[in-house]
């Protein structure tokens, strides 16, 4: 069964839209876009689309891709110091001549709606809920909340070692009292773990690593990652056959990542104090 | 078999002693101690003992326990700005009227030899080895290195959810390509995981949670935590019987934590640029 992930996203957008309507603030979302690579432009367009939908202002500052690191840091500082800017994001990746970590560390953590600043990542470690939510993994938790899943006694297998996904996910799950098994592409006999797990989150970047024989009919599979081979996209799970055998699985393409932007908008409303 | 953990610690101290001897710098270790609770005083004495052993200066700044938060933050700032101080630590816990996180976030992360600052915790997440090492979990990794354990294909079960231990440990292990199973005190049938694991790290605070029937003769058990009931100390593992059945286990008391101070001294030498 393919999970109706778009409906979950839409529910969240509608909740946010409602909160914006009830607020008397003129809410603005600020983004910085440094170059023109098609993926970045597409992501920014997505963000504008949903900002429009929930009824908030979208302001984009475009910068030339030859901008120096010093100039960019100066702009980040201006954004940090501006009283009218409550939160902003910089579309990644950055051009190669700029040190990404330097830029991320420069952002005022209280304005870091995209959740990349070390202080914010740390807040997840110490489980401080007052803070911004990590956009990427938060939607997974949001989904589980909507499905009324209680993690006590639940076994979750997380496959993959990517920095943005597994680390915060594992932290969030353990904080929710789940038993979490972290596998990677070198783990022998992953099937041993997946067969006994209630939930499987896969972000390994290995085409069709997860197949129907590795799961049960009751499994819930969250497929986060994909690989491109000869212009064709392969997701980590064999979605079609897993769907046929009856387990619940996220839709691809356009699946799980749909919620990332929703979380970004949620953080933006947080930065405005209306959530 | 009880692991000779003290020998491992001594080996590290001797390596550090050697480095100090070869250096022409007059190395100093700075610590701040705020009150007189017996545990804190004992920990500080331990640190002085080993600083003496490796041949570095130990400077302790003692503060009255009625110090205000503002006064303490001012002192931290002085330490941050002092050119002669390359690294320093504040003995935890702090008195209740002081916000611990505020103080920790105030420490210059480049001088945070005790590894508590968010930036340093984050460096572990992104696996930046150039940085200070987290004192508490680093000794576990140091031990595995000395035992020549390669984590690829290895299954490690970590029991417990404490912030200082499992999170950095899990991160360090996954970065080393281990398959890591995170259990907690609510996990049903922990035995299922421990029986098939090469290594078990336990920090749950549940007396004798790990018993000989839950492991194999080849297991390596690292017991990190204990509980005090009616003035008697109970460790998480049934050390005596696990030793009798032949598996390798850390010594208690005075076991694993012996290496924490060694890691602190190592970070201190790092802050002086002689490692």
Write the layout of secondary structure elements.
The structure is a homodimer of 275-residue chains.
Chain A: H1 5-22, E1 28-33, H2 38-54, E2 57-62, H3 69-81, E3 88-90, H4 100-106, H5 118-125, H6 135-146, E4 155-159, H7 166-175, E5 179-183, H8 191-194, E6 199-202, E7 220-223, E8 226-229, E9 232-235, H9 239-244, E10 248-249, H10 258-271
Parallel strand pairs in A: 1-2, 1-3, 4-5, 4-6, 6-7, 7-10
Antiparallel strand pairs in A: 8-9
Helix pairs in contact in A: 1-10, 6-7, 6-10
Which characteristics define this entry?
Rossmann fold, 2 domains, homodimer
Briefly note the structural class of the backbone of chain A: alpha/beta
- Quick check: average pLDDT of chain A? 88
CATH class category label of the largest domain in chain A: Alpha Beta
Q: Profile the largest sheet of chain A.
A: 5 strands, parallel
Concise synopsis of the structure shown:
The structure is a homodimer of 275-residue chains. Helix content of chain A is 40%, strand content 16%.
Overview of the molecule:
2 copies of one chain form a homodimer. Chain A folds into 2 domains: 18-116, 3-Layer(aba) Sandwich (Rossmann fold); 135-249, NAD(P)-binding Rossmann-like Domain (Rossmann fold, 3-Layer(aba) Sandwich), CATH 3.40.50.720. Chain A has 10 helices and 10 strands. Chain A has helices at residues 5-22, 38-54, 69-81, 100-106, 118-125, 135-146, 166-175, 191-194, 239-244, 258-271, and strands at residues 28-33, 57-62, 88-90, 155-159, 179-183, 199-202, 220-223, 226-229, 232-235, 248-249. In chain A, the strands form 3 sheets. A 5-stranded parallel beta sheet of chain A has the order 5-4-6-7-10. In chain A, strands 2-1-3 form a 3-stranded parallel beta sheet, covered by helices on one side. Chains A and B meet through helix 5, helix 7 and strand 5 of A and helix 5, helix 7 and strand 5 of B.
């Amino acid at each position: 069964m393919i999970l109706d992930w778009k409906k979950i996203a839409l529910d969240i957008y509608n909740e946010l839209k409602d909160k914006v309507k009830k607020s008397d603030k003129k809410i603005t979302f600020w983004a910085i876009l440094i170059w023109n690579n098609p993926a970045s432009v597409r992501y920014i367009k997505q963000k504008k689309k949903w900002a429009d939908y929930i009824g908030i202002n979208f302001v984009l500052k475009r910068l030339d891709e030859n901008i120096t690191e010093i100039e960019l840091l100066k702009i980040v500082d201006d954004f940090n110091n501006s009283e009218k800017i409550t939160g902003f994001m910089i579309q990644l990746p950055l051009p190669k001549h700029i040190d990404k970590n330097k830029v991320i560390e420069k952002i005022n953590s209280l304005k870091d709606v995209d959740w990349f600043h070390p202080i914010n990542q740390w807040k997840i470690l110490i489980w401080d809920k007052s803070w911004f939510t990590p956009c990427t993994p938060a939607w997974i938790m949001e989904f589980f909340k909507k499905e009324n899943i209680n993690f006590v006694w639940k076994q979750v297998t997380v496959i993959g070692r990517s920095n943005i996904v597994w680390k915060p996910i594992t932290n969030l799950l353990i904080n929710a009292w789940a038993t979490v098994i972290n596998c990677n592409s070198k783990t022998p006999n992953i099937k041993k773990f997946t067969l006994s797990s209630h939930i499987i989150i896969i972000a390994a970047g290995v085409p069709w690593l997860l197949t129907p024989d590795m799961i049960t009919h009751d499994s819930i599979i969250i497929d986060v990652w994909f690989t491109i081979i000869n212009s064709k996209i392969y997701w980590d799970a064999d979605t079609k056959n897993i769907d046929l055998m009856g387990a619940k699985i996220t839709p691809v393409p356009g699946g799980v990542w749909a919620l990332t932007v929703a979380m970004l908008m949620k953080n933006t409303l947080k930065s405005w104090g209306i959530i």
